[in-house]
Amino acid sequence: MFKINENYLKLPGSYLFSTIAKKVSAYTEANPDKDIIRLGIGDVTLPLAPCVIERLHKAVDEMASKETFKGYAPDLGYEFLRDAIALNDFKMRGCDISADEIFVSDGAKSDSGNIGDIFATDNKIAVCDPVYPVYVDTNAMAGRTGVYDQDTQKWSDVIYMPCTKENNFCPEIPSQTSDIIYLCFPNNPTGTTIPKDKLQEWVDYALKVGAVIIYDAAYEAYISSDDVVHSIYECNGAKGCAIEIRSFSKNAGFTGTRLGYTVVPHDLKCNGTSLHSLWARRHGTKFNGAPYIIQAAGAQIYTEEGKKQTKEMVSYYMNNAKIIREGLIDAGYEVYGGVDAPYIWLATPDKMTSWEFFDYLLEELNIVGTPGSGFGPSGEGYFRLTAFGSYENTKRAVERIVNK
Amino acid sequence: MFKINENYLKLPGSYLFSTIAKKVSAYTEANPDKDIIRLGIGDVTLPLAPCVIERLHKAVDEMASKETFKGYAPDLGYEFLRDAIALNDFKMRGCDISADEIFVSDGAKSDSGNIGDIFATDNKIAVCDPVYPVYVDTNAMAGRTGVYDQDTQKWSDVIYMPCTKENNFCPEIPSQTSDIIYLCFPNNPTGTTIPKDKLQEWVDYALKVGAVIIYDAAYEAYISSDDVVHSIYECNGAKGCAIEIRSFSKNAGFTGTRLGYTVVPHDLKCNGTSLHSLWARRHGTKFNGAPYIIQAAGAQIYTEEGKKQTKEMVSYYMNNAKIIREGLIDAGYEVYGGVDAPYIWLATPDKMTSWEFFDYLLEELNIVGTPGSGFGPSGEGYFRLTAFGSYENTKRAVERIVNK
Question: Which helix (H) or strand (E) element contains residue A385?
């Protein structure tokens, strides 16, 4: 008899956002007349930028003619896109990353889940707490996390690094040695950032103990403060210890269009084996490239026009973030994030649990948010609101909260 | 120090098609004036169908307006696409597969590689020999194949089922018990099919010993013979033992557009655990859907217009197959496949090895094909040509072979 991967059976409940979707769906079915405002899942609402639309149309036309038709894409992604990425996202920020260290993919979720494939099962992972669920869940699927304790909501073999208001949501280097460290800045879910000197400490630590950092920079476009780094490769030595994951979802609204990339520097090695060669092998064997028309459209955001148009989208969302942030502060809430990230992280009032506050918002104010505890035990007592709604809905939601 | 997945280091050489690409590139660099005809990789050359292009443009326009913009896709894929698949690919062939048993993905390569995630490491896999390299390579990455022997070109823990002219390229049920069986019909690389009663024997065997069949039907659109099954679910009981993988790459020319799907029936269980729930969990955690515009375009091939236009594309390629097949037979070659599949599988002449014949074709006739031994030890002495070139190039290539 064939055997299943038993690790899957250890996973608690369902994926966070599926649970929320089910709860909301049950509520709206029972209350079809209610006007629900969704500030829960981090999904964008603005249409694609005009220059991206234009390029998509042009690329579609290329697929209509034998002379310009594109079949299988190159393994790492089209050179025109990787060149634009290397130049704009790295070289222009002083990071020495070359086009052949960039692997184009269908998004940061796939990459942050799949990257585990190239590591041994017995590595010890360390994650921020709270954290984007995909890091832990995919490691659990790979058998890297031990057993799950329903009471503590923790896995036995995972190092949790609490990020709470007590430490300014900045993880402290753990006393236990870790092998694979997941960091995400600007942070999902807390919306906070890490000072450059603190990130440098992480890089130094990783180099010292021989750890690898998986750096998720999906929200870098939302950074407005001058002193916040956009890439981990702005830190000295990071090419020897860090993989960086980027997304087109939030800066260019590609959540339903799907494009991302991962940087694996040639310098990153384990006893002489380059991680670049391993990821290249995985990429070439288990993936067949992002669609040509999407890669062509992605390159467009690096043109002058594309930069201007995507910046306007980011500004639109960050204006929403400001409205939420300031409204909640006025209403007496304790609020974090929302300055360099599209997420607002608030402390739940009156000692409510995260899910109690979720139910309260849904049932009393008809607003959907995300309970902090869904991101890990240290998220308990917090709640996430996103700035990705429309301006009108965001304003109405904040009014409901303020007027309550 | 972090540790890598050592299984990657056991993999021999590079992925077959990367090796070929490098050889061809070295030859063309040294001989820039030569007119190379590529009948190697199974990549299509015809542009997308007019109705697909039209739908792509319309979908792009939907992404340009706030009212019709699409963010994250539903976990399993859009219902409009899954409904069309369930109806046209299954119900209309008498297979009782429902839309919620269908998982839309970015292609059959990803799915056939990733499906291993939901199975335990200590399953015994059985593959046809020769075989599409992705099945074995991804199982090797997962640590399921033992050690590789350079001499025999076999992995110690893999059951190889020879498919040669001696058994009409139809695998025989192995004496050793297997847990996960990969079958692909119409077959890549041999271009041959399996009679329905033979496939039924495989289903019966799998049900009896508790094995699961991964059935790759990426080439089903090329079936012209009436008595060949298009889906394994045409066999009795297959829903209890088989996962089927499909692709839009070859029937609709989506190699560079990326769309596929996998069927995991609810009936398929291992000691009470449904594989559907495991794959749903993987899909929801490590993947974020195929782009909306691509899914919309994919649904178009199930319209009357789409069926007509894609059928014309298939006919075009199958005419090429006929030209190759008949030309080679006239030239005295021993030829298989090419009737219900876009691949022609020929026995190399004069006891040449597959790679010797590759070099001969490349250097003497400037034709690129694929050496049979690249697909497994029993592929030695065979060679694959594909019908995916243009009519003109196919004709010229066959003339070169015939006139030699």
Answer: strand A382-386
Q: What's the token pair of residue A137?
A: 């869940």
CATH number of A53-303: 3.40.640.10
From residue A310, give the alpha-carbon distance in Å to each of A54, A244, B66, B273. 14, 21, 15, 46
Which residues, including other chains, have CB under 8 Å from residue A81's CB and lie 6 or more apart? A104, A295, A296, A298, A299
Pick B281's closest partner by Cβ from A11, A180, A270: A11
Q: Are B248 and B260 in contact (CB under 8 A)?
A: yes
Is residue A44 over pLDDT 80? yes
Q: Domain spans of chain A? A: 12-47+305-403, 53-303
CB contact under 8 A, A14 and B118: no
Alpha-carbon distance A282 to B11, whole Å?
11
What is the residue-averaged pLDDT of chain B?
Answer: 96
Cβ–Cβ contact A275 with B under 8 A: yes
Rounded CA separation A156/B64 (Å): 47
CA distance A221 to B226: 56
In chain A, residues with a C-beta closer than 8 Å to the C-beta of B122 are 3
CB contact under 8 A, B45 and A293: no
Architecture in CATH of A12-47+305-403: Alpha-Beta Complex (3.90)
Is the alpha carbon torsion for B261, B262, B266, B272 positive or negative? negative
The reported pLDDT for the residue numbered A118 is: 98
The three-state secondary structure class of B213 is strand
Predicted confidence band at B41 (pLDDT cuts at 50, 70, 90)? confident
Rounded-to-integer distance, Cα A378 and Cα A153, Å: 10
**In B, which residues are within 8 Å of A4 by CB distance?**
118-120, 270, 273, 275, 278
CATH 3.90.1150.10 fits B7-47+307-403, yes or no: yes
Handedness of CA A222, A224, A226, A228 (dihedral sign): negative
Which is nearest to A178 in space by CA: B2, B99, B104?
Answer: B2
The whole model's pTM is what? 0.96
Contact status, residue B245 vs residue B215, Cβ threshold 8 Å: yes
What is the pLDDT at residue A14?
Answer: 67
